Protein backbone atom coordinates (compact mmCIF):
# COMPACT_ATOMS: atom_id res chain seq x y z
CA UNK A 1 0.00 0.00 0.00
CA UNK A 2 2.01 2.82 -1.34
CA UNK A 3 -0.10 5.71 -2.35
CA UNK A 4 -2.92 7.91 -1.24
CA UNK A 5 -5.93 6.43 -2.98
CA UNK A 6 -8.13 9.50 -2.59
CA UNK A 7 -8.88 9.88 -6.30
CA UNK A 8 -9.79 6.24 -6.74
CA UNK A 9 -11.85 6.27 -3.59
CA UNK A 10 -13.84 9.22 -4.86
CA UNK A 11 -14.48 7.34 -8.08
CA UNK A 12 -15.52 4.30 -6.09
CA UNK A 13 -17.95 6.25 -3.99
CA UNK A 14 -20.39 6.34 -6.90
CA UNK A 15 -20.13 2.57 -7.29
CA UNK A 16 -20.73 2.19 -3.59
CA UNK A 17 -23.86 4.34 -3.76
CA UNK A 18 -25.16 2.25 -6.64
CA UNK A 19 -24.53 -0.97 -4.76
CA UNK A 20 -26.45 0.22 -1.74
CA UNK A 21 -29.28 1.83 -3.66
CA UNK A 22 -32.54 1.26 -1.80
CA UNK A 23 -35.79 -0.55 -2.38
CA UNK A 24 -36.37 -0.67 -6.14
CA UNK A 25 -34.46 -3.91 -6.11
CA UNK A 26 -34.94 -5.21 -2.57
CA UNK A 27 -31.74 -7.26 -2.78
CA UNK A 28 -29.32 -5.62 -5.17
CA UNK A 29 -26.59 -7.75 -6.66
CA UNK A 30 -23.40 -6.97 -4.77
CA UNK A 31 -20.13 -6.62 -6.58
CA UNK A 32 -17.46 -9.19 -6.02
CA UNK A 33 -14.42 -7.64 -4.40
CA UNK A 34 -12.59 -10.89 -3.97
CA UNK A 35 -11.62 -11.64 -7.55
CA UNK A 36 -8.75 -9.91 -9.30
CA UNK A 37 -10.07 -10.84 -12.70
CA UNK A 38 -13.65 -9.67 -12.46
CA UNK A 39 -14.57 -7.38 -9.59
CA UNK A 40 -18.12 -6.76 -10.79
CA UNK A 41 -20.40 -9.83 -10.39
CA UNK A 42 -21.78 -11.21 -7.17
CA UNK A 43 -19.02 -13.12 -5.43
CA UNK A 44 -19.60 -16.84 -5.03
CA UNK A 45 -16.75 -16.92 -2.56
CA UNK A 46 -18.48 -14.86 0.13
CA UNK A 47 -20.60 -16.53 2.75
CA UNK A 48 -24.16 -15.32 3.19
CA UNK A 49 -23.09 -13.64 6.43
CA UNK A 50 -20.25 -11.73 4.76
CA UNK A 51 -22.55 -10.57 2.00
CA UNK A 52 -25.22 -9.46 4.44
CA UNK A 53 -22.82 -7.56 6.69
CA UNK A 54 -21.16 -5.85 3.74
CA UNK A 55 -24.49 -4.96 2.20
CA UNK A 56 -25.72 -3.48 5.47
CA UNK A 57 -22.57 -1.45 5.88
CA UNK A 58 -22.77 -0.15 2.31
CA UNK A 59 -25.77 1.92 3.35
CA UNK A 60 -23.38 4.05 5.39
CA UNK A 61 -21.68 5.08 2.15
CA UNK A 62 -24.82 6.96 1.07
CA UNK A 63 -23.91 10.17 2.87
CA UNK A 64 -20.26 9.96 1.83
CA UNK A 65 -18.89 9.41 5.34
CA UNK A 66 -17.81 5.84 4.58
CA UNK A 67 -16.22 4.60 1.37
CA UNK A 68 -15.87 1.08 0.07
CA UNK A 69 -12.32 -0.03 -0.88
CA UNK A 70 -12.36 -3.15 -3.07
CA UNK A 71 -9.18 -5.28 -3.24
CA UNK A 72 -8.80 -4.29 -6.88
CA UNK A 73 -7.77 -0.89 -5.58
CA UNK A 74 -4.78 -2.50 -3.84
CA UNK A 75 -3.60 -3.94 -7.12
CA UNK A 76 -4.09 -0.66 -8.90
CA UNK A 77 -2.14 1.09 -6.17
CA UNK A 78 0.61 -1.49 -6.32
CA UNK A 79 0.88 -1.00 -10.06
CA UNK A 80 0.75 2.75 -9.64
CA UNK A 81 3.51 2.52 -7.02
CA UNK A 82 5.60 0.46 -9.40
CA UNK A 83 5.23 3.07 -12.12
CA UNK A 84 5.79 5.98 -9.76
CA UNK A 85 8.88 4.58 -8.12
CA UNK A 86 10.60 2.61 -10.81
CA UNK A 87 12.97 5.49 -11.50
CA UNK A 88 13.27 6.79 -7.94
CA UNK A 89 16.30 6.29 -5.70
CA UNK A 90 14.09 4.12 -3.53
CA UNK A 91 13.68 1.53 -6.24
CA UNK A 92 16.99 1.89 -8.04
CA UNK A 93 18.30 -1.44 -9.22
CA UNK A 94 15.53 -3.43 -7.57
CA UNK A 95 13.54 -6.00 -9.49
CA UNK A 96 9.87 -5.53 -8.75
CA UNK A 97 6.60 -7.04 -9.80
CA UNK A 98 3.04 -5.95 -9.17
CA UNK A 99 2.08 -8.82 -6.92
CA UNK A 100 0.83 -8.30 -3.37
CA UNK A 101 0.94 -10.87 -0.58
CA UNK A 102 -2.45 -10.36 1.00
CA UNK A 103 -4.75 -10.16 -1.97
CA UNK A 104 -3.09 -12.79 -4.15
CA UNK A 105 -2.00 -16.39 -4.21
CA UNK A 106 -5.18 -17.89 -2.95
CA UNK A 107 -8.11 -19.52 -4.65
CA UNK A 108 -11.53 -18.00 -4.16
CA UNK A 109 -13.36 -19.13 -1.03
CA UNK A 110 -10.18 -20.80 0.25
CA UNK A 111 -8.13 -17.76 1.27
CA UNK A 112 -8.61 -14.14 2.28
CA UNK A 113 -12.09 -12.77 1.55
CA UNK A 114 -12.94 -9.31 2.79
CA UNK A 115 -14.92 -6.13 2.37
CA UNK A 116 -13.26 -2.89 3.44
CA UNK A 117 -14.77 0.44 4.39
CA UNK A 118 -12.88 3.66 5.06
CA UNK A 119 -13.98 6.77 6.96
CA UNK A 120 -11.69 9.67 6.20
CA UNK A 121 -13.05 12.11 8.80
CA UNK A 122 -12.94 9.60 11.65
CA UNK A 123 -9.67 8.05 10.43
CA UNK A 124 -11.14 4.58 10.74
CA UNK A 125 -11.39 1.41 8.70
CA UNK A 126 -13.94 -1.37 9.16
CA UNK A 127 -13.23 -4.72 7.53
CA UNK A 128 -15.49 -7.76 7.31
CA UNK A 129 -13.30 -10.80 6.85
CA UNK A 130 -13.87 -14.47 6.09
CA UNK A 131 -10.84 -16.79 6.25
CA UNK A 132 -10.74 -19.91 4.06
CA UNK A 133 -9.17 -23.30 4.78
CA UNK A 134 -5.88 -22.43 3.07
CA UNK A 135 -5.24 -20.07 5.98
CA UNK A 136 -5.32 -22.85 8.52
CA UNK A 137 -2.79 -23.23 11.30
CA UNK A 138 -4.14 -25.37 14.10
CA UNK A 139 -6.68 -27.70 12.41
CA UNK A 140 -9.92 -25.85 11.78
CA UNK A 141 -8.52 -22.53 12.99
CA UNK A 142 -6.95 -19.49 11.36
CA UNK A 143 -3.13 -19.42 11.41
CA UNK A 144 -1.70 -16.69 13.65
CA UNK A 145 0.37 -15.55 10.70
CA UNK A 146 -2.72 -15.18 8.53
CA UNK A 147 -4.29 -13.02 11.23
CA UNK A 148 -1.09 -10.97 11.43
CA UNK A 149 -1.01 -10.58 7.65
CA UNK A 150 -4.60 -9.44 7.60
CA UNK A 151 -4.12 -6.98 10.46
CA UNK A 152 -0.89 -5.55 9.03
CA UNK A 153 -2.40 -5.14 5.58
CA UNK A 154 -5.64 -3.52 6.71
CA UNK A 155 -3.84 -1.25 9.18
CA UNK A 156 -1.51 -0.21 6.35
CA UNK A 157 -4.51 0.82 4.27
CA UNK A 158 -5.56 3.26 6.97
CA UNK A 159 -1.97 4.42 7.52
CA UNK A 160 -1.42 5.09 3.82
CA UNK A 161 -4.67 7.00 3.59
CA UNK A 162 -3.58 9.08 6.58
CA UNK A 163 0.12 9.63 5.84
CA UNK A 164 0.85 8.64 2.24
CA UNK A 165 3.67 6.17 1.57
CA UNK A 166 4.46 4.28 4.78
CA UNK A 167 6.16 1.17 6.12
CA UNK A 168 5.39 -1.05 9.12
CA UNK A 169 7.76 -0.44 12.05
CA UNK A 170 6.12 -2.32 14.92
CA UNK A 171 3.25 -4.77 15.06
CA UNK A 172 2.02 -6.09 18.42
CA UNK A 173 -0.77 -8.65 18.42
CA UNK A 174 -2.56 -10.30 21.32
CA UNK A 175 -4.50 -13.40 20.35
CA UNK A 176 -7.38 -13.68 22.83
CA UNK A 177 -9.36 -16.47 21.19
CA UNK A 178 -8.82 -18.55 18.07
CA UNK A 179 -10.85 -17.79 14.93
CA UNK A 180 -12.59 -20.71 13.23
CA UNK A 181 -11.96 -21.17 9.50
CA UNK A 182 -14.99 -19.98 7.50
CA UNK A 183 -16.36 -17.70 10.22
CA UNK A 184 -16.85 -13.99 9.59
CA UNK A 185 -15.13 -11.47 11.85
CA UNK A 186 -15.05 -7.70 11.89
CA UNK A 187 -11.89 -5.60 12.21
CA UNK A 188 -12.18 -2.08 13.62
CA UNK A 189 -9.03 -0.05 13.02
CA UNK A 190 -8.38 3.51 14.07
CA UNK A 191 -5.62 6.11 14.17
CA UNK A 192 -4.65 6.71 17.80
CA UNK A 193 -1.92 9.29 17.37
CA UNK A 194 0.24 11.07 14.79
CA UNK A 195 3.73 12.32 15.72
CA UNK A 196 5.68 13.81 12.85
CA UNK A 197 6.30 10.98 10.41
CA UNK A 198 4.85 8.40 12.80
CA UNK A 199 1.29 7.17 12.86
CA UNK A 200 0.09 4.91 15.69
CA UNK A 201 -2.90 2.63 15.05
CA UNK A 202 -4.95 0.13 16.99
CA UNK A 203 -7.16 -2.72 15.87
CA UNK A 204 -9.70 -5.11 17.34
CA UNK A 205 -10.91 -8.32 15.73
CA UNK A 206 -14.37 -9.34 16.93
CA UNK A 207 -17.18 -11.67 15.99
CA UNK A 208 -19.74 -10.32 13.52
CA UNK A 209 -22.05 -9.38 16.43
CA UNK A 210 -18.99 -7.79 18.12
CA UNK A 211 -19.63 -9.77 21.33
CA UNK A 212 -16.49 -11.92 21.14
CA UNK A 213 -13.04 -10.31 21.10
CA UNK A 214 -10.64 -12.51 19.13
CA UNK A 215 -7.55 -10.33 18.85
CA UNK A 216 -6.21 -6.90 19.61
CA UNK A 217 -3.28 -5.17 17.95
CA UNK A 218 -1.30 -1.95 17.94
CA UNK A 219 1.13 -0.79 15.30
CA UNK A 220 3.42 2.00 14.28
CA UNK A 221 3.93 3.01 10.66
CA UNK A 222 6.49 5.54 9.51
CA UNK A 223 6.22 7.75 6.45
CA UNK A 224 8.85 6.98 3.83
CA UNK A 225 11.34 9.40 2.40
CA UNK A 226 11.27 8.71 -1.32
CA UNK A 227 14.74 10.15 -1.79
CA UNK A 228 16.33 7.58 0.49
CA UNK A 229 17.13 4.00 -0.41
CA UNK A 230 15.48 1.43 1.83
CA UNK A 231 17.99 -1.40 1.63
CA UNK B 1 2.28 -27.29 14.84
CA UNK B 2 0.46 -29.52 17.19
CA UNK B 3 2.57 -32.31 18.46
CA UNK B 4 5.92 -33.10 19.92
CA UNK B 5 7.87 -34.32 16.94
CA UNK B 6 10.62 -36.02 18.92
CA UNK B 7 10.14 -39.40 17.31
CA UNK B 8 10.13 -38.00 13.80
CA UNK B 9 13.10 -35.84 14.55
CA UNK B 10 15.05 -38.83 15.76
CA UNK B 11 14.21 -40.61 12.53
CA UNK B 12 15.27 -37.57 10.55
CA UNK B 13 18.58 -37.34 12.33
CA UNK B 14 19.86 -40.27 10.30
CA UNK B 15 18.81 -38.54 7.09
CA UNK B 16 20.56 -35.43 8.25
CA UNK B 17 23.78 -37.33 8.91
CA UNK B 18 23.60 -38.89 5.45
CA UNK B 19 23.09 -35.50 3.84
CA UNK B 20 26.11 -34.04 5.56
CA UNK B 21 28.30 -37.12 5.13
CA UNK B 22 31.85 -36.05 4.37
CA UNK B 23 34.26 -36.37 1.52
CA UNK B 24 33.29 -39.45 -0.52
CA UNK B 25 30.96 -37.18 -2.45
CA UNK B 26 32.48 -33.71 -2.06
CA UNK B 27 29.15 -32.01 -2.71
CA UNK B 28 26.33 -34.31 -1.63
CA UNK B 29 22.94 -33.83 -3.24
CA UNK B 30 20.80 -31.98 -0.75
CA UNK B 31 17.23 -32.98 -0.21
CA UNK B 32 14.49 -30.61 -1.28
CA UNK B 33 12.47 -29.47 1.70
CA UNK B 34 10.36 -27.06 -0.24
CA UNK B 35 8.13 -29.44 -2.14
CA UNK B 36 5.25 -31.28 -0.53
CA UNK B 37 5.18 -33.89 -3.24
CA UNK B 38 8.78 -34.92 -3.37
CA UNK B 39 10.99 -33.96 -0.45
CA UNK B 40 14.02 -35.93 -1.68
CA UNK B 41 15.70 -34.39 -4.76
CA UNK B 42 17.82 -31.26 -4.85
CA UNK B 43 15.50 -28.28 -4.76
CA UNK B 44 15.52 -26.11 -7.84
CA UNK B 45 13.69 -23.45 -5.86
CA UNK B 46 16.57 -22.68 -3.50
CA UNK B 47 19.11 -20.03 -4.37
CA UNK B 48 22.76 -21.00 -4.36
CA UNK B 49 23.16 -19.03 -1.13
CA UNK B 50 20.34 -20.89 0.62
CA UNK B 51 21.76 -24.24 -0.46
CA UNK B 52 25.25 -23.33 0.68
CA UNK B 53 24.14 -22.04 4.08
CA UNK B 54 21.92 -25.07 4.69
CA UNK B 55 24.65 -27.43 3.59
CA UNK B 56 27.17 -25.78 5.90
CA UNK B 57 24.78 -25.95 8.82
CA UNK B 58 24.01 -29.61 8.19
CA UNK B 59 27.51 -30.42 9.35
CA UNK B 60 26.39 -29.44 12.85
CA UNK B 61 23.94 -32.33 12.76
CA UNK B 62 26.81 -34.79 12.80
CA UNK B 63 27.19 -34.88 16.56
CA UNK B 64 23.42 -34.92 17.14
CA UNK B 65 23.24 -31.48 18.75
CA UNK B 66 21.33 -29.99 15.81
CA UNK B 67 18.54 -31.66 13.86
CA UNK B 68 17.11 -30.78 10.49
CA UNK B 69 13.31 -30.31 10.35
CA UNK B 70 12.03 -30.45 6.78
CA UNK B 71 8.63 -28.84 6.01
CA UNK B 72 7.25 -32.29 5.25
CA UNK B 73 7.37 -32.86 9.00
CA UNK B 74 4.89 -30.01 9.45
CA UNK B 75 2.46 -31.71 7.15
CA UNK B 76 2.92 -35.03 8.87
CA UNK B 77 2.34 -33.35 12.21
CA UNK B 78 -0.72 -31.59 10.91
CA UNK B 79 -2.13 -34.88 9.70
CA UNK B 80 -1.16 -36.55 12.93
CA UNK B 81 -2.88 -33.76 14.87
CA UNK B 82 -5.99 -34.24 12.77
CA UNK B 83 -6.07 -37.93 13.56
CA UNK B 84 -5.24 -37.43 17.22
CA UNK B 85 -7.79 -34.73 17.85
CA UNK B 86 -10.66 -35.54 15.58
CA UNK B 87 -12.55 -37.20 18.42
CA UNK B 88 -11.39 -34.91 21.21
CA UNK B 89 -13.53 -32.23 22.84
CA UNK B 90 -11.15 -29.70 21.31
CA UNK B 91 -12.15 -30.60 17.80
CA UNK B 92 -15.74 -31.64 18.34
CA UNK B 93 -17.99 -30.58 15.51
CA UNK B 94 -15.25 -28.70 13.70
CA UNK B 95 -14.53 -29.27 10.04
CA UNK B 96 -10.81 -29.63 9.54
CA UNK B 97 -8.43 -30.31 6.71
CA UNK B 98 -4.73 -31.05 6.67
CA UNK B 99 -3.63 -27.81 5.06
CA UNK B 100 -1.19 -25.43 6.71
CA UNK B 101 -0.84 -21.74 5.94
CA UNK B 102 2.93 -21.36 5.96
CA UNK B 103 4.07 -24.36 4.01
CA UNK B 104 1.32 -24.42 1.39
CA UNK B 105 -0.39 -22.34 -1.25
CA UNK B 106 2.69 -21.06 -2.96
CA UNK B 107 4.51 -22.11 -6.06
CA UNK B 108 8.12 -23.17 -5.74
CA UNK B 109 10.65 -20.35 -5.81
CA UNK B 110 7.85 -17.78 -5.54
CA UNK B 111 6.87 -18.18 -1.89
CA UNK B 112 8.32 -19.42 1.39
CA UNK B 113 11.53 -21.42 1.01
CA UNK B 114 13.38 -22.42 4.16
CA UNK B 115 15.66 -24.86 5.91
CA UNK B 116 15.11 -25.40 9.63
CA UNK B 117 17.45 -26.69 12.30
CA UNK B 118 16.53 -27.50 15.90
CA UNK B 119 18.77 -27.80 18.96
CA UNK B 120 16.95 -29.55 21.78
CA UNK B 121 19.54 -28.97 24.52
CA UNK B 122 19.93 -25.27 23.79
CA UNK B 123 16.21 -24.82 23.05
CA UNK B 124 17.00 -22.99 19.84
CA UNK B 125 15.95 -23.01 16.22
CA UNK B 126 17.92 -21.64 13.29
CA UNK B 127 16.11 -21.05 10.02
CA UNK B 128 17.54 -20.03 6.66
CA UNK B 129 14.80 -18.36 4.68
CA UNK B 130 14.39 -17.12 1.12
CA UNK B 131 11.21 -15.16 0.31
CA UNK B 132 9.81 -15.25 -3.24
CA UNK B 133 7.97 -12.53 -5.19
CA UNK B 134 4.53 -13.77 -4.15
CA UNK B 135 5.35 -12.54 -0.66
CA UNK B 136 5.75 -8.97 -1.80
CA UNK B 137 4.26 -6.01 0.02
CA UNK B 138 6.07 -2.82 -0.90
CA UNK B 139 7.39 -3.42 -4.44
CA UNK B 140 10.52 -5.56 -4.29
CA UNK B 141 10.26 -6.09 -0.53
CA UNK B 142 8.83 -8.76 1.74
CA UNK B 143 5.33 -8.04 3.09
CA UNK B 144 5.27 -7.40 6.86
CA UNK B 145 2.57 -10.06 7.11
CA UNK B 146 4.78 -12.61 5.39
CA UNK B 147 7.54 -11.85 7.88
CA UNK B 148 5.03 -12.20 10.72
CA UNK B 149 3.76 -15.49 9.31
CA UNK B 150 7.28 -16.83 9.04
CA UNK B 151 8.26 -15.70 12.54
CA UNK B 152 5.06 -17.03 14.14
CA UNK B 153 5.38 -20.38 12.39
CA UNK B 154 9.04 -20.93 13.16
CA UNK B 155 8.65 -19.76 16.77
CA UNK B 156 5.74 -22.21 17.10
CA UNK B 157 8.00 -25.04 15.99
CA UNK B 158 10.33 -24.33 18.89
CA UNK B 159 7.42 -23.82 21.29
CA UNK B 160 5.81 -27.12 20.33
CA UNK B 161 9.09 -28.96 20.71
CA UNK B 162 9.48 -27.40 24.16
CA UNK B 163 5.92 -27.62 25.51
CA UNK B 164 3.84 -29.89 23.28
CA UNK B 165 0.55 -28.58 21.89
CA UNK B 166 0.55 -24.78 22.06
CA UNK B 167 -1.17 -21.70 20.69
CA UNK B 168 0.12 -18.18 19.98
CA UNK B 169 -0.95 -15.66 22.62
CA UNK B 170 1.16 -12.61 21.86
CA UNK B 171 3.40 -11.73 18.94
CA UNK B 172 5.41 -8.49 18.98
CA UNK B 173 7.51 -7.63 15.95
CA UNK B 174 9.83 -4.70 15.33
CA UNK B 175 10.71 -4.21 11.69
CA UNK B 176 14.15 -2.55 11.65
CA UNK B 177 14.91 -2.76 7.94
CA UNK B 178 12.98 -4.12 4.97
CA UNK B 179 13.94 -7.49 3.47
CA UNK B 180 14.44 -7.65 -0.29
CA UNK B 181 12.53 -10.33 -2.19
CA UNK B 182 14.86 -13.19 -3.12
CA UNK B 183 17.47 -12.45 -0.46
CA UNK B 184 18.40 -15.07 2.13
CA UNK B 185 18.05 -14.24 5.82
CA UNK B 186 18.70 -16.22 8.98
CA UNK B 187 16.27 -16.50 11.89
CA UNK B 188 17.68 -17.26 15.34
CA UNK B 189 14.95 -18.25 17.79
CA UNK B 190 15.39 -19.18 21.43
CA UNK B 191 13.35 -19.96 24.53
CA UNK B 192 13.79 -17.11 27.01
CA UNK B 193 11.59 -18.33 29.85
CA UNK B 194 9.08 -20.97 30.86
CA UNK B 195 6.40 -20.22 33.47
CA UNK B 196 3.92 -23.03 34.04
CA UNK B 197 2.00 -23.40 30.79
CA UNK B 198 3.64 -20.32 29.27
CA UNK B 199 6.73 -20.29 27.10
CA UNK B 200 8.36 -16.97 26.13
CA UNK B 201 10.46 -16.85 22.98
CA UNK B 202 12.54 -14.30 21.12
CA UNK B 203 13.67 -14.11 17.53
CA UNK B 204 16.07 -12.11 15.38
CA UNK B 205 16.04 -11.93 11.60
CA UNK B 206 19.44 -11.06 10.17
CA UNK B 207 21.29 -11.11 6.87
CA UNK B 208 23.08 -14.34 6.00
CA UNK B 209 26.36 -12.90 7.33
CA UNK B 210 24.41 -11.79 10.44
CA UNK B 211 25.69 -8.21 10.09
CA UNK B 212 22.33 -6.60 9.27
CA UNK B 213 19.44 -6.86 11.73
CA UNK B 214 16.14 -6.83 9.81
CA UNK B 215 13.60 -7.65 12.50
CA UNK B 216 13.26 -8.62 16.13
CA UNK B 217 10.33 -10.35 17.76
CA UNK B 218 9.10 -11.72 21.06
CA UNK B 219 6.20 -14.05 21.61
CA UNK B 220 4.25 -15.95 24.21
CA UNK B 221 2.77 -19.37 23.54
CA UNK B 222 0.49 -21.20 25.96
CA UNK B 223 0.13 -24.94 26.27
CA UNK B 224 -3.31 -26.18 25.31
CA UNK B 225 -5.64 -28.18 27.47
CA UNK B 226 -6.96 -30.89 25.19
CA UNK B 227 -10.05 -31.40 27.32
CA UNK B 228 -11.23 -27.84 26.76
CA UNK B 229 -12.95 -26.51 23.66
CA UNK B 230 -11.17 -23.62 22.01
CA UNK B 231 -14.06 -21.80 20.40
TrEMBL record, chains A, B:
GO molecular-function terms, A-Z: hydrolase activity
Keywords assigned by UniProt, alphabetized: Apoptosis, Cell membrane, Cell projection, Cytoplasm, Fatty acid metabolism, Hydrolase, Lipid metabolism, Membrane, Mitochondrion, Mitochondrion inner membrane, Transit peptide
UniProt-recorded name of the protein: Acyl-coenzyme A thioesterase THEM4
Family: Belongs to the THEM4/THEM5 thioesterase family.
EC number of the protein: 3.1.2.2
Thioesterase domain segment(s): 140-211
Membrane topology: Peripheral membrane protein
Localization per record: Cell projection, Ruffle membrane; Cytoplasm; Mitochondrion inner membrane; Mitochondrion intermembrane space
GO-annotated cellular components: mitochondrial inner membrane; mitochondrial intermembrane space; ruffle membrane
Reaction(s) this enzyme catalyzes, per UniProt: octanoyl-CoA + H2O = octanoate + CoA + H(+); decanoyl-CoA + H2O = decanoate + CoA + H(+); tetradecanoyl-CoA + H2O = tetradecanoate + CoA + H(+); (9Z)-octadecenoyl-CoA + H2O = (9Z)-octadecenoate + CoA + H(+)
Gene3D superfamilies in the cross-refs: Hotdog Thioesterase
Region (Disordered): 22-43
Amino acid sequence: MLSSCGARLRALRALCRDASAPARNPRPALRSFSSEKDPTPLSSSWSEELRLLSHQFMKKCDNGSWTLIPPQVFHDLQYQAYRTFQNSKLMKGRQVSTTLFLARNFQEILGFEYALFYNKDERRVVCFFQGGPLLQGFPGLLHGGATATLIDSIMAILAVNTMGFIMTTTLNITYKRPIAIGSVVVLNIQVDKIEGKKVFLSCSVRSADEKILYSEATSLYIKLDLEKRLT
